[in-house]
Write a structure and sequence with these properties.
homodimer; 171 residues; alpha/beta; Dna Topoisomerase Vi A Subunit, Chain: A, domain 2; four-stranded parallel sheet; two-stranded antiparallel sheet; Rcmb_RecR_Znf (chains A, B); TOPRIM_dom (chains A, B); DNA recombination (chains A, B); DNA repair (chains A, B); DNA damage (chains A, B)
């Protein structure tokens, strides 16, 4: 891309540079859900049609985009901006879990949905948040883990298969 | 492999050929579960410790191996040997679903577990078998579909994410 801009379109390169610089200054985090936004509150938190009684906890702003695109979810979000990882110095403070605790303690949250990747660090993060929600007596759910759609059983790893098996559902 | 055998080890090649020829003649299908076996009944169906009241329906013998390796499942199997695919001329008769119907009608099956790949043809097959089991009043479950373990939400396809979201479970 750099070669293309240098050889063919220097004006576009300058424009891209100025847009990037402006975004770096202008885009901040939503005061409520912590996703990336230009305004103090993001468009989802501002939308009165979204049901803020359902809160979906995700790792990053890209997960918000993925869920908005793939599902009919009409609740609110809480964006962690990472996963708990004590070895990298990322603890509950770095993920601003205090804000989530406040939101849970404030009442009005009927269901906390954990949409965190089922990796080792992600599972630890889910566990921590689930305990936090249990203290605030808010019901917690997590998105299903199992065989991906279109996936052949034969090529699925053993851990996923075991998980899918133990988590089988009535048809 | 062919070059290696021809250049380095022709005796091993001859041995492999004879073993392959023998397997082609000797290995047949289990009379009860239809998996590959040398005996009339496979080792799983012969094992009195396996609970034949739980029956797991899979597409092929390799799925039996995968489930045996990954899970603690101690029931029996029914191996379809494929998926329903009318365009390829594969109907209920080709998968010997009549045998499964008999087994369900015979009573004694407390749970039918569908461990069929969540592809289009696989889902159609699951649906067909679930209806068959419903007629025989046997409870049916299917293995969980969702985000694979260790998978990053960001890289999961939209269909899987939507499915995982709607199939969320209480923590």
């Amino acid at each position: 891309m750099a070669f293309y801009l240098l050889e063919r379109d220097r004006d576009a390169g300058r424009h891209l540079a100025s847009v990037m610089a402006a975004s770096m200054d202008r885009i901040g985090r939503c005061e409520s859900c912590r996703t990336l936004t230009e305004a103090p509150l993001c468009s989802i938190c501002m939308n009165p049609k979204r049901d803020q009684g359902l809160v979906c906890v995700v790792e990053g702003p890209s997960d918000v985009a993925a869920i908005e695109q793939a599902t009919e979810f009409s609740g609110g979000y809480f964006v962690l901006g990472g996963r708990l990882s004590p070895l990298d110095g990322i603890g509950p403070e770095e993920l601003e879990l205090g804000r989530l605790r406040q939101r849970l303690a404030g009442g009005g949250v009927r269901e906390l949905i954990l949409a965190i990747s089922p990796t080792i660090e992600g599972s630890a993060t889910s566990h921590y948040i689930a305990e936090m929600a249990a203290l605030a007596q808010v019901p917690v759910t997590r998105i299903a883990h199992g065989v991906p759609l279109g996936g052949e059983l034969e090529y699925v790893d053993g851990g996923t298969l075991a998980h899918a098996f133990s988590g089988r559902l009535p048809v």
